Amino acid sequence: MEIKTVLKSSVAAGALMALAAPMTFAPVSSAEAGGPKSANSKVTTTLGGRLHRAIMHVDDGASDGMFNTDGQSANSEVWLTGSGALTESITVGGKLRWDIGKNQGSCSFGSTTGDDTCAAGGFASKNESIYFKHKSMGTLTIGDQGEAGAGAPNLDYASKLNDAGATAGGFNFTTSATGAFTTITVGAVFDDTDPGTTNAIRYDSPSFGGMGLALSYAQGGSSSGKLSYAGTLSGLSVKAAIQHTNAEGNGDDVTTSGGIAVKHASGLNARLSYGKTDTSGSEVDAQYQAYGIGYAGKFNSLGQTDVYAVKHETEDSRADGDEADEITVGIVQALDSIGAKMGLSYTQVSYDDGAGTDYNDIDVIYFETSFNF
User: Which residue range forms the structural domain that includes residue 293?
Assistant: First the structure.
């Protein structure tokens, strides 16, 4: 049975069950209390934001420089959320989210000149959505959001600064013979086979013994599904998920990917991910894998300290036979008293186009601090 048919039936059934629930009221959860006053006194409103700033030294084999930029782990942003009890069983809520401007988010060596350059991004709408959450039947969400499969290949217990291709995403590879710039950027050679954000109808089931199901149908015809688990097995904390997303309806790819992460009570943790893309109208189908280890411990009064190492690999992303590798080691310190964190990492990125071109590695020493409010 096609996932699109299953999704339409599940969403319709979920909506009907939610609307048939008893009409009695319950208080809003304490996690949502204490926000700013709202024009609508019947809902609880929360205003939030996050700032990321980073200092990074980049060496592409021909040029090197220091950059004072926004964080590469995520954009600085602001958001508004609100929620209210529709019935005793149903909570309705919404979210508005924006990227903030002047964050110097796009840095490079000018692609051809070797000059340090950063471009400031403008204010932009990030996403918005409305959800209907039933206590026993799950959550139906409408709007701009992650497709159901999102996150499956990127499960981890390590608190990392960045994931695949993010640290040096806008920098161009150079060739060693002349130090000449190519048109290939780091961000273009990695594909983590993780569905992105789009306008979709999404259903998330409640947890049954740690198992969860998510289904979505996006504007343009992309259908996505994920089966996940979070719990404890043989004394280990475990997170696992597998997803399948068919975006052929809007002329894009079909991806299947998943991952598993485990954590021991001592703080030792590990992850493994794999994904495969089937590209419409092309023989170039990306394959992704990642594996890493980490350790989380309490070494000071500031909060948890995470030490980690991870390797990302993408094959056949741009052409048959090409391969991109990224190795990162890092440390992240939580700042519990203010709900923030900071970290330091070293990343080396290499690329082989499968055609014998000798590309220089790109090395990045990266420090980032984030502040939430």
Answer: 3-372
Burial 321-340 (b: 16+ CB within 10 A, else e): ebbbbbbbebbbbbeeeeeb
Inform me whether the pLDDT recorded for 22 exceeds 60. Answer: no
Number of domains the chain is built from: 1
> Per this entry, what is the length of the chain?
373
Q: How far apart are CA 28 and CA 53, in angstroms?
A: 34
Taking the CA atoms of residue 59, residue 64, residue 68 and residue 74 in that order, the dihedral angle to the nearest 10 degrees is -20
- State pLDDT tens for residues 212-231: 999 999 988 899 999 999 99
Please report, for the domain that includes residue 272, its CATH number: 2.40.160.10
Nearest-angstrom CA–CA distance, 255 and 229: 20
Backbone angles phi, psi at 248, to 5 degrees: -65, -20
Distance of CA 289 to the CA centre of its chain: 16
Tokens representing 183 are: 């048109």
Using only C-alpha atoms, the chain has a radius of gyration, in whole angstroms, of 22
Nearest to 142 by CA among 99, 96, 94, 98: 94
Cβ-contact 75, 105 below 8 angstroms: yes
Which residues lie below 8 Å from residue 24, measured CB to CB, with a gap of 6+?
Answer: 87, 88
The DSSP secondary structure of 151-172, one letter per residue, reads TGGG--SS--S--TT-TTTTPE
- The pTM assigned to this predicted structure is 0.82
